[in-house]
Amino acid sequence: MVHSTDRPLKLLIVVHHRFELWNIPGWFLQKLAEQFPQIEIAHRTSYEGIEERLRDAEVIFTISLRPEQLALGTRLRWIHAPTAAVHQFLFPELVNSDIVLTHSSEVHGPVVAEHVMALIFALARKIPQAARLQAKREWGQDSIWNHGQRPREIAAATLGLIGLGAIGLVVARAAAALGMRVIAVREHVEKERPEGVSEVLGPDQIERLLARSDFVVMAAPLTPATRGLMNAARFAQMKRDAYLINVGRGAQVDECALADVLRSHQIAGAALDVFEHEPLPAESPLWDLDNLLITPHTAGLTEKLWHRHYDLFSENLRRYLVGERLLFTVDKQLGY
Known about the structure:
Order of helices and strands: EHEHEHEHEHHHEHEEHEHEHEEH
Structural class: alpha/beta
Helix content: 25-40%
Low-confidence stretches: none
Strand content: 5-15%
Shape: elongated
Number of strands: 12
Number of helices: 12
Radius of gyration: 22 Å
CATH architecture of the largest domain: 3-Layer(aba) Sandwich
Largest sheet: 7 strands, parallel
């Protein structure tokens, strides 16, 4: 892919989010204009009244796009998502088009992986329970030891990874360095086994992974195959002293089934950073579970976020202008 030089490249950036960090900072746009003076950059914080911009745009940087908006983009050749997830783009009109879609999993992967490791430690050492006892000014040594799963060591524990992408690969290396045995499920078993991973299983062997794992970490993209992946039947395959951690997508976990197994102590506990509906409604039964640690979709938060975004997107812009292959291109048929 190479940009035609008979007219200036028109880049449309449309990002608006209720959460401040997800919105593009001013310096990002200024630096982009300085580095690429030959590009016409249009920035909008809403899709209202931008029909002409959509018609002219050759490249769009945005969190989502609807089919009727795509239909206006007759000159569109590349969409870049500042998100790791891209399921919101995978409607038939875009999937079946020649438009290239790139994502930002490499931007989010390392910091989300750090969050995963923090959750593993918090669950293993019962940090949430200690925090609740502190809030009540209660010296709860007996309580922490005797109520629920006892504090445990993570060295020699088995970590089961569902997904070996930008998050999973970093988690595997970190966990292995701490003495954990890492097993993983991924689509392409034939690929070389990554660093830190002792064993790679296919999707049809997920029950084997669940039965052997002390910590199950979900870090897979949302696809038809992973939607509702963790349901009552799959929870029944887990060890009673095991923990579930989800930093993938909320729709991959049946939250009602999870609430049931946590109440009945069918598994030791869980930590969720993503939810089917966000913000998590106040009436959700998940809030009341003392063996569930909730982080409000904060795994990807870092002050370095937009610097990482800039490094990735500017490099891909450079590649696009000279006809080089873009980094982190999505296989739209597979969904990741």
